[in-house]
Fold Acetyl-CoA hydrolase/transferase family protein.
Amino acid sequence: MSSRIHHPGLRAKVMSADEAAAFIEPGSTVGMSGFTGSGYPKAVPTALAERIKAAHARGEDFQINLHTGASTSTEMDGALAEADGIALRTPFQSDPTMRAKINSGDIEYIDTHLSHLAQTVWNGFYGPMRTAVIEVSAIREDGTLVPSSSVGNNKSWLDLADQVILEVNSWQSEDLEGLHDVYYGTALPPQRKPIMIMDPADRIGQPYFECDPDKVVAVVETHAPDRNSPFKPADADSIAIARHLVDFFEHEVAHGRYDEHLLPLQSGVGNIANAVMAELVKSRFKGLTAFTEVVQDGMLDALDSGTLRLASATAFSLSTDKAEEFNANAGRYRDKLILRTQEISNHPELVRRLGILAMNGMLEADLYGNVNSTHLMGTTMMNGLGGSGDFARNAFTSFFLTPSTAKGGAISCIVPMVSHVDHTEHDVHVVVTEQGLADLRGLSPKQRARTIIDTCAHPDYKEQLQDYFDRAMRDSGGLHTPHLMDEALAWHQRFIETGTMRQG
Ligand code: 0RQ
């Protein structure tokens, strides 16, 4: 029996993952833990997928609606999608099988701002939540729960669900205890109060989840690592993008808009975000803070080097090696890391007050600075917008980053008109590609278009974009935001038909 379960009543509820999965009913709504590959339940989802497959083999219907914090893993999202066990998924995913079934129309997916999901579930828009399946790193004697490597929406799922299944994962470091800040002060309007965070280091909650032990129907013990996908070594484009950003930070300090400690950083997921942290570690900046969603490898390095003094997030998203290293030294980070509930880590009130520098990846931007983060060629879901919108709209400066081309140059990531809009031109201050950085602040639409073509477009597409813009200036109905409406999305159609956006 695990030494991590200190509550006698809950110790008596330990059972196998198969037995626990039997509590989940067909057609019900389930809230599971998990955020960018960390802190998701490791055993019950796989057991549930097997149960669903067996039910389907008997000719019975069995699907659930699934809410999480964000993306999980192949053994959770992948297994449940593979089993055709999901009717509805929110709010973010990145698993290839889940993505394929969303795009084939077999799974309904609602892509939503990560800070919004809990309140929409509290408000009943998705119906009642029957079961919560939550990974924790320990159960304390009084029944409170030590969170694991992500906090996400777990507090809300534990509060809302009729019944709770806990997974206690002894792979998670015991030194995580004390690192989390779970806020119980959120209320619905008109009872809302200000959220009293003035500095990313402020703590306003408690390190544990509350959970009525009588609601817990099963406790499952696991010893399994998080998903921990490896990062590719930074490529030339990522390094160039990161360098443009660090130069820009120097420029803003010189103009007195940021001080020597810049402003709290939010950095999205992926290799570019890691490269940005690596360039910051090489720079002269020290004592910075991060108020962000996810702690990646680069952020731990920045904490080690003193580049960052503190990082506040809702989850880890570490490579395998870094996760092992972190687990061996978690105590060292106790005063430098805070994991919060995602409605607080991503809260627009806090993003605006703290003056966040928000850096997020994108698929494409258009001449006017509208950004598509989610839809390939306008119709195919990639991952979801995640927290990018929570941060971008309220950021002090919102940056969107991408290589200038994709698919070996067949796609220009700067297009006349984006094929789907996640972030409007009003929320996008700076666009960065390896070619350069376009500072759009204070520019009118036509000025923005000229700046983006000049600084961000790949040389292979510059002339084509300039030609489009020149003809739009001549033939557009209105000249505030000039477009050729019959041609604005022709680049995407050309790619679909010929495999390239290049004109013949
Ligand atoms: O596909 O690997 O098959 O070639 O898209 O592109 O360049 O590797 O970029 O991994 O940084 O992802 C927007 C998806 C960028 C990510 C997105 C193809 C490209 C490649 C990935 P291949 P890259 P990244 C807070 C922030 C939304 C969530 C978010 C994302 C693949 O940043 O999910 O911001 N963002 N969260 O070839 C067609 C284009 C393309 C394209 C690239 N224009 N058209 N395909 N690709 N550009 C954190 C959280 O919320 C959790």
User: Anything to note?
Assistant: The chain has a mean pLDDT of 97.
